[in-house]
Amino acid sequence: MNKILLIDGNSLIFRAFYATAYSGEMLKSLDGTPTNAVYAFANMLNKILKDNNYYSVVVAFDKGKVNFRHDLITDYKAGRSKAPEELVQQFPIVKEFLDSYQIPYLEKEGYEADDLLGCLAKQAEAQNYYVDILSSDKDLFQLITDKTNILIPRQGDSADIFDKTALLNKWEVSPEQVPDLKGLMGDPSDNLKGIPGVGGKTAIKLIKEYQTIENIYQNIDNIKGNLKNNLISHQDEALLCKKVATILCDLDLGDFAFSKLEVNKEKLLDFYLKYNMNSYVTKLYNNNEPVKQSLEVKVITEWNEQWNEDGTTVFLELFDENYHLSELIGFGIVNSHGIFYFDYTSAKFDTSFHAFLANENYQKFTYNAKSLIVGLGRDNITINNISYDMMLAGYIYNSNTRNTLDNYINLFAKKQILSDELFYGKGVKKTIPTDLNKLSYFIGEKANYIHMLREKIVTLLTNNNQYQLYYDIELPTTFALARMERAGVKVDQQELSKQTVRIEQIVNDLNREINTIANKEVNPNSPKQLSELLYQDLQLKDYKKGSTAQEVLETIKLSHPIISKILDYRKYQKLYSTYLKGMEKYLFQDGKVHTIYKQTLTVTGRLSSVEPNMQNISIRDEIQKEVRKIFVVSSEDNILLSADYSQIELRILADMSKDDHMLAAFNAGEDIHTNTAMKIFNLKRAEITPAIRRSAKAVNFGIIYGISDFGLANDLNISVPQAKEIIQNYYQQFPTIKNFIDSQVEFCKNNGYVVTMFNRKRYVPEINDANYMQREFGKRIAMNMPIQGTAADIIKIALKNIDQELLRLKLKTKIIAQIHDELIFEIPKTELTQVKALVKDLMENSTKLSVKLTVDMAEGTSWYQLK
User: Fold this and answer.
1) E strands, 91-213, where?
2) Domain range summary for the chain, segments of one domain joined by +
3) In 10 A of CB 847, how many CB atoms?
4) Between β-strands 753-755 and 638-645, what pairing exists: parallel, antiparallel or unpaired?
5) CB 121 within 8 A of CB 112
6) For the structural domain made of 1-166+255-286, what CATH number should be given?
7) Other CB atoms within 10 Å distance of the CB of residue 87
8) If you count Cβ atoms within 10 Å of the first and of the last residue's Cβ in the chain, which end, N or C, has fewer?
9) Is 647 left (phi over 0), alpha (psi -120 to 50) or beta?
10) How far is CA 286 from CA 283, 423, 431, 439, 559, in A?
11) Other CB atoms within 10 Å distance of the CB of residue 863
C-alpha cells in the first residue's frame, strides 16, 4: 500500500517553536542562529518517517500575509500576535532542511497551506495513494476520507490519528460538515465571528439535525426563541464563515507529481553539521560508511626532502586531550606539494622528517603548538620556527567561541566538519577507525583548513588590532608554557603518603562524628541523604528547596552543630580526593606532575591548569596549605623561587582610571587598603584596625569585580543597607574610579565588547539582554574584564620575556609553574642571585604603568615555604 505524508509546514513550525521556547530550550547554532524550531521540526519528521513507510513526503506553506480569504473578510486573522523574530528567522532554515532531505515543498501566492494540502490530498487519492496529513490545524478534519487521515501531534513525538470514526466520536459530525460547524461557532483564532450565542454543543446539535447551514435556514421556522433571532440576524456571517473555512481542493498545482522519497544522507549530514545538530549527526553518521572525499589526501610512509617548504602546515592528531599521555595518531601536512597524511608510527623514526621539523629556516603552521611541541618532545623530536597557531589566533579573535578545531573552522569558514567526538566516538566506544582512507581524510581535511584559513585569520586579527597580542604575547607564551609543562613539578612521595594517611583519618573521623550526631548512618557525599537529614530529620529551616550546596550550608551553619562538621568533611574530602590520593594518578615515572596549562579556556585571558589543577591549592587554610609541602625541588642543588605581583589588579585600576588618590598612594608606597579605609570610613591612620583594613580590602577588590551591596554584605557579614552605604562612600571618595567603571559599561553597551590595555577583546552579548539578571551580569563583566584581562596579559608578557632571557643566557633555571599572579622557578643555587635580579627586573618592567609594578619574592625547598 503506497502512502503519502503531507505536512502543514506553518502549523508544524509554530508548534515546534513554542513547544521548545516555553520550556527554555532556545537552541542556537554556534554563530547564534536560533534553531529550536528547526530542531523540533526535524525531530517530529524523523520520528514519523522512522515509524511509517511513506512513498512520498510533501510540505505545504502559506505564501505571503494576504490571501483570497482577506478579500472575503478584511480582518481575517486580525489580532494574531506577530511571530517572534527568532521564529521568523527559522522558516528559511526549515526549507533548507527540506532541500537537504530532498523533500519537496509547495507554496502559492494568495492561498494558504490548507488549500495546497487539500489539492495534494485529492491528487494523491486520485492516483490511488493513501494519505496522512500532519498538522495541528483541526480545520483540516474536513479533508478526512476513507483514504485520508489527519495526524494531530501531541506532547512528545507521537500523534493522534483522526479518521471518520475518530472525528465522529470527537465532534459527532462528518468531515464534510466541519465548515458548517465552523460557520456556526466561528473561530476566534481566525477572527471569524460565527453566530452569537452558538457554542460547540449548540452547533453540533443543529448540524446533527439539519446537516448543513443552508438546510438550517431552509428550516428556520422550526427553530424558536433567541437562537432563531440570532440565526436570522447573522445569516450572512454564518454563510461567509463557512465559505472562508472551506478548504479549496481544485487549485492548479502545475506539473507537480509525487516522487519517491530518497534521503540524501550527505546533504542532510552537511545540514546537521552546519547548524550544530550533533545528536542528529550521531544518528545519521555511520563510521563504517565510505566518506565523501572532495580533497586528495596522500598517505605517505616516509618523508621526501623535496617536500621541505617554508610555510608548511604540520598538524598532529592526538587520540586524547592530554598530550603528555595520549596516543599520537598521525600528522596532517599541507604545502604546495599537496595534502599528506603521515602515520605517527612511521614518522616517529623518519630522520628526514625530524630534520625538516627541527630546521629553523622553514616556518611551520599548526593548531595547538603546545600540544605539538610536548607530544613530539616525548620522543625527543624537536620542532622549530612555529610561526602560526590557529587555536591561539581563533581564541584571540573571539574568546567566547569554544576552542575546538571544528568550531574555529565553522567560525572562519562557515563550514562544520565532524567533531572528534562524532568521528572517534566517546567513552568506552571511542576508537580509531581501521579504515585508513577515512582516518587520513579526516586528519588531512583538518590540516587543509588550518592551512587555507591562515591568511584570512591573520588579516582579521590585523584589521581588528589584535595581531600584536596574538603574535607578540600569546604565541611566545605558548612556547614558554610548553617548556614549563615538560619541566614538571617534583613531588615528595613520602610526604604525599604521610599527608594522605593523615587526611584520610580526619575524613573518617568526621564521618563518624556526623553519624553520631545524626544518630544514623549518613553518606556525607550524598546530597539526597544530607537533604533528608537536615530538612526532614532535624527540621532545619529550608531556604532553597532542600539544597545542600556549599553557599546554602554556610548561611545556616550556626543553626546546628552538624553543619560545621559537614562543611569540614567536604573540605578534607576534597583535599584527600583531589590533591592527596587524587595526586597519585598524575605522577609520572620521573616522580613529577606535568600539568596542562589551558591557554584558551578562559574568556579573560587568564591561564588555567588541569590534570592536576596546580592553581587551586588554598593558602588561606593552614591544613590545606600543608599540601604545598609535597611539591619540592628535584635536586638538593636547587632552590625554589616564587615571584608574585603585588596587588596588580588594583595598580591596573589606578592606572586605567587615572585616579589621583590611588596613584599617589601606590607611588608613595602606602598600604592601599589602609588608605582606602581612611577615606571610606573617615578615620585616621592610627584608628585603622586589622578588621577595618580587611573590610576596606574586600571593598577594593569587590569594586573591581562589580560587587553588589548584597555581595559585600555577605562578605563582611553586615546588613545590606550598611554595605550599600560603604559602596556609596567609596564612589564619593573615588569619583574618578566611578566614572571609569561607568565609561567601561557604556562602551560595552555601545560596542558589544570590552578591551584590555593590550586590545584583548571580550564580547559581552549579555550587556544588552532583555533579561535584567543577564544585563547585570554583563555589567559586571564590563567592569572587571579590562582589569583582570590586562593583569593576565602582563603576567604572560613577563613569563615569555623571562623564558626567552633564560634561553638566551643558557641558564639551567626552569619556570615550573604559573599560579594567578605568581611565577615559580626551580633554580640551581649557583644561579640564584643572577636569576632573582633578572626576574625582578623583567616582571616589574614588563609594562610601563602610571604606578610601579612591584614583585614579592620568597625562596624555599618546597612550595609551602614560598607562602
Assistant:
1) 105-106, 130-134, 148-153, 159-162
2) 1-166+255-286, 173-246, 294-464, 490-593, 656-786
3) 17
4) unpaired
5) no
6) 3.40.50.1010
7) 18
8) N
9) left
10) 8, 9, 13, 14, 57
11) 25
- 164 CB burial (10 A radius; 0-12, 13-18, 19+): middle
**Which amino acid would we find at residue 839?**
V
3-state secondary structure of 645: strand
Do residues 107 and 235 lie in contact, with contact meaning Cβ atoms separated by under 8 Å? no
C-alpha closest to that of 272 among 56, 67, 27? 27
Residue found by looking up cell 571610606 in the block: 680
Q: Of 8, 569, 419, give the one whose Cα is nearest residue 247.
A: 8
Amino acid at position 183, single letter: G
Cell numbers standing for residue 152: 494531530
The closest of 501, 548, 500, 552 to 525, measured between CA atoms, is 548
H-helix or E-strand containing 44? helix 36-51
What residue ranges in 61-121 does DSSP mark as E strands?
Answer: 105-106
Cell numbers 615528595 correspond to 492
CATH topology of domain 490-593: Taq DNA Polymerase; Chain T, domain 4 (1.20.1060)
pTM: 0.78
Cα–Cα distance, 316 to 348 (Å, whole number) = 12
Fold: same for 1-166+255-286 and 656-786: no
What is the model's pLDDT at position 246?
82
Let me know: does 60 contact 105? Beta carbons within 8 Å. Answer: yes
Q: Is 769 exposed, middle or buried (0-12, 13-18, 19+ CB in 10 A)?
A: middle
Query: What are phi and psi for residue 811, nearest 5 degrees?
Result: -85, 155
pLDDT at 502: 93
Phi, psi of 294 (to 5 degrees): -105, 0
Residue 712 exposure: Cα atoms within 13 Å on the Cβ side: 26
* Apex 663 CA angle, 657 and 669, nearest 5: 150
Q: How many CB atoms lie within 10 A of CB 583?
A: 20
Residue 203: Cβ-neighbour burial (10 angstroms; 0-12, 13-18, 19+): buried
What's 656-786's CATH class? mainly alpha
Which residues in the chain show pLDDT less than 50? 68, 71
Q: What dotted CATH number matches 173-246?
A: 1.10.150.20
Cell 450572512, located at residue: 236
Q: Residue 641 pairs with which residues in a beta bridge? A: 825, 859
Sheet of strand 592-593, all strands in order from the earlier edge strand to the far edge: 592-593, 489-491, 631-632
Location of C-alpha cell 565588547: 753
Architecture of domain 294-464: 2-Layer Sandwich (3.30)
To which residue does cell 614518522 refer?
347
Q: State whether the Cα torsion 500-501-503-507 is positive or negative.
A: positive
Is the dihedral angle over the CA atoms 200, 201, 205, 206 positive or is it negative?
A: negative
Cα–Cα dist 491/625, whole Å: 15
- The candidate with the shortest Cα–Cα distance to 260, out of 467, 595, 3, 590, is 3
Amino acid at 736: T
The CA–CA distances, whole Å, from 269 to 97, 401, 667, 703 equal 10, 22, 62, 49
pLDDT given at position 194 = 67
C-alpha distances in angstroms, 837 versus 324, 361, 480, 834? 33, 34, 19, 5
Joined together, the cell numbers standing for residue 142 give 474536513
